[in-house]
From TrEMBL:
Family affiliation: Belongs to the ATP-dependent AMP-binding enzyme family.
Organism expressing this protein natively: Virgibacillus pantothenticus
InterPro entries according to UniProt: Acac_CoA_synth (IPR005914), ACAS_N (IPR032387), AMP-bd_C (IPR025110), AMP-bd_C_sf (IPR045851), AMP-binding_CS (IPR020845), AMP-dep_synth/lig_dom (IPR000873), ANL_N_sf (IPR042099)
Name the record gives this protein: Acetoacetyl-CoA synthetase
Record PANTHER family: ACETOACETYL-COA SYNTHETASE
Length: 661
């Protein structure tokens, strides 16, 4: 593996690429329609974050947002939380998906999986299927404000179900079938859904996983459900015998009356979907984002920062349980074709996704940094085996892409390639530090802060810093910020999550350095989330799985980022008196985590310790343990006076010394 220093220039866009970039069209439009002229991207960004009302109003005008009621106010206040965007306006997300495309025979979606062959769906077919599913929802009484939940893989039917849900003003939430049963129940119970979409099972790594009993358990745990729509995916004609009152997808679509799509307009700040946090300190937080905020932000980010338009083929490897699925669906807003893949990205070989890129003539390849680094470590050379002539961009997120990952792409995928490492999150359902096709690419660096996102790096004193690592913060409101958390009437959970460190300023939880040339470097999360392959999960979910093992008295898990490789994720356990940590017991623990959380979050290793360090009020010290394993000293991480059992830290210092050697 070749070494490369952070900040080395690897690529510069050609004049042709700069000229044809979608953001260049916007800059020209600003000059013609607003008499505003900008010499480069950074001047444009500076205006967009210091005149945010004017900027977001220009985005509304540029994309000609359709609204039953227009806006009078752009932003109610700059105070956070509580700022409201375009409060008088009413919109519908799905309307913008199909605008001027309902009768097009151009491809809207290309989808495939381990169990399904590649299929291309036209805009016309997508429209017809969405209209049919809308009729099903209406027959079931689903209307504005109702919650619709989906336990589905990344398949075509999931997109149709979501678009139909949004079209009637209902609220969507989804979870991937590889999530453990309790993880799904903990999410869906909080929002009291009326309708449940599910499948019979899925295939991953060549193995079939029947989920009908899990679906039945989820269904029985949701007393507010009035209907369940089931999709035969693992089998051609699944019976779903363990489920109650099942409506079969194919039959429902077939019997639906043929009527055009109608659109229920909702207030700009009404909910579109509920995404869930990873659940680090308890049950996952239900993050609610608005129809208008997501619509505006995704149009901007996907058009200008991903450079999508008609003729593009946009892929991201994701599941329905990750916000990148929602972001991928947003690609339809730009008129591009989106590509769905369900399955193991490394099955039957590490080249599977590169093969998919060739088969679909992919132009934008979105993936996790860990996938790129795993290809790099396995010495995969896509350019030798696949025709990637259509590919113009590789985007990565989930964790920082190391400089060597950038270099690997240029040496093994394509020389003339725009690499865009991106950072954002579930909290805003977008990337707000990302790429732009008119700027150069430097190894290990994210090209720019996104338009309209006033990102800064704060030191511990709450002061902005350059060329220093600090906390990533947003100092101005942003349209796709949560409008609220579900069941948080006084907003206390929302404030605690983002505004408890710097009052009135959003603290995101990432370590960030902004360079003098205005690029950015992310150095990982500043919280305790476990992140494997771009899929995050909270420690509390791991603990709930481990709690099923009677021999274990307590446990603690941390995620230690490693240079140029996947994270080191040790699980520490305290044994009950008289019990031993045997190899068989370790295997049992891993099986429980695989079943109750996800296969991605099985720890690197399991280690016995005599006790876990806790605060005086009983909270486990995850972050201090993480810092110990990263080589920090006691005085740098924790005040002994705040600990219930400071001596418990000794075992972790000993472990840190052991893993050094």
């Amino acid at each position: 593996m070749k070494q490369v220093e952070e900040g080395i220039l690897l690529w510069e866009p050609s004049e042709e690429r700069k000229t044809t970039a979608k953001i260049n069209s916007y800059i020209k439009w600003l000059g013609e329609h607003k008499n505003m002229h900008f010499q480069d991207y950074h001047a444009l960004w500076d205006w967009s974050v210091h005149e945010i009302e004017a900027f977001w109003a220009s985005i509304w005008d540029y994309f000609d947002l359709q609204a039953e009621e227009g806006y009078q106010t752009i932003l109610s206040s700059h105070h956070m939380p509580g700022a409201k965007w375009f409060p008088e306006a009413t919109v519908n997300y799905t309307e913008h998906i199909f605008r001027n495309r309902a009768t097009s025979n151009q491809p809207a979606i290309i989808h495939t999986s381990e169990s399904r062959k590649i299929k291309t769906v036209s805009w016309r077919q997508l429209y017809q299927d969405t209209a049919a599913m809308q009729q099903v929802l209406k027959r079931l009484g689903i209307q504005k404000g109702d919650r619709v939940v989906a336990y589905l893989p990344n398949i075509y039917e999931a997109v149709v179900a979501f678009l139909a849900t949004a079209s009637v003003g209902a609220i969507w939430s989804s979870a991937s079938p590889d999530f453990g049963t309790q993880s799904v129940i903990d999410r869906f119970q909080q929002i009291e859904p009326k309708l449940f979409f599910t499948i019979d099972g899925y295939v991953y790594g060549g193995k079939a996983f029947d989920r009908t009993d899990v679906a039945a358990e989820i269904q029985s745990s949701l007393p507010t459900l009035e209907a369940t729509i089931a999709i035969s995916y693992l089998e051609e004609q699944a019976t779903f015998a363990s489920l109650q009152h099942v409506i079969h997808w194919e039959q429902a679509i077939k019997e639906a009356p043929v009527r055009p799509l109608s659109f229920t307009y909702v207030a700009f700040n009404d909910p579109l979907w509920v995404l869930f946090s990873s659940g680090t300190t308890g049950k996952p937080k239900p993050i609610v984002q608005s129809q208008g905020g997501i619509l505006l932000e995704h149009l901007k980010a996907l058009t200008f920062h991903v450079d999508l338009g008609e003729g593009d083929r946009f892929f991201w490897f994701t599941t329905t349980g990750w916000m990148m699925w929602n972001f991928l669906i947003g690609g339809l807003l730009t008129g591009s074709t989106i590509i769905l893949y369900d399955g193991n990205p490394a099955y039957p070989s590490k080249g599977r996704l590169w093969q998919l890129a060739e088969e679909t003539k992919m132009t934008v390849f979105g993936t996790s940094a860990s996938y790129i680094t795993s290809c790099m470590k396995d010495n995969i050379k896509p350019y030798e085996n696949y025709d990637l002539s259509q590919l113009k961009n590789i985007s990565s997120t989930g964790s920082p892409l190391p400089p060597e990952g950038f270099l690997w792409c240029y040496e093994n995928v394509k020389k003339d390639l725009w690499i865009a490492s991106a950072s954002g999150g579930t909290d805003v359902c977008t990337a707000f530090i990302l790429g732009v096709p008119t700027l150069p690419v430097y190894a290990g660096e994210l090209q720019c802060r996104g338009l309209g996102a006033k990102i800064e790096s704060f030191n511990d004193n709450g002061k902005p810093v350059i060329e220093e690592v600090g906390e990533l913060v947003l100092t101005e409101p942003f349209p796709s910020m949560p409008i609220y958390f579900w069941n948080d009437p006084d907003g206390s959970r929302l404030k605690e999550s983002y505004f408890n460190v710097f009052p009135g300023i959003w603290r995101h939880g990432d370590y960030l350095k902004i360079t003098k040339r205005k690029t950015c470097v992310i150095y990982g999360r500043s919280d305790a989330t476990i992140n494997r392959g771009g899929v995050r999960i909270g420690t509390s979910e791991i603990y709930r799985a481990v709690d099923h093992i009677p021999e274990i008295a307590d446990s603690l898990i941390v995620d230690i980022p490693q240079p140029n490789s996947d994270s080191f994720v040790p699980l520490f356990v305290v044994m009950k008196d008289g019990c031993q940590l045997t190899d068989d017991l370790k295997q049992q623990i891993n099986q429980h985590i695989r079943a109750h959380c996800s296969p991605r979050h099985v720890p690197t290793g399991i280690y016995e310790v005599p006790d876990l360090p806790r605060t005086l009020n009983g909270k486990k010290l995850e972050i201090p343990v993480k810092k110990i394993l990263q080589g920090k000293q006691m005085e740098q991480i924790v005040n002994k006076g705040s600990l219930h059992n400071a001596a418990a830290l000794d075992a972790f210092y000993q472990f840190a010394e052991k893993i050094k050697t």
